[in-house]
Specification:
Layout: H1 29-37, H2 46-72, H3 81-97, H4 103-131
Helix pairs in contact: 1-2, 1-4, 2-3, 2-4, 3-4
Amino acid sequence: MPFFPRTANSGPALTGRAGPRPWVGRESIEDVIREAAGTGSWLPDTRRVRAVTARLRVFVQERAYDVEVAARGRAVGDPVRGPALAAVREARYRLGLGPGDGYASAITFARSLGRAAEDLLHHERRLRREEA
């Protein structure tokens, strides 16, 4: 059963590339985020979309928890706290939307998770920087 229901393209890459890029588990999350953001200019095959989405899902789930814990440890009036918690809420909202029913929806979902992951990284770094 395909990961994205009612997805018509389950064959080779749509872009004329030699085939899907193999999934390399050691890719940095920044590389995965860049790839998800770049799907507007090229269309990966469904296996690659599935792999990128899975990696981003796990990252967003874990990082949202970490950012939330760090932000809640701050004073209520801390200027870093509110935006970090808002980013956590937004990331969880995007995660809950799911990929939808087709290939275009799957690409949009991957991009959305990429933006959420990027935002969480930004707030995590900001929380760490403000601690020092």
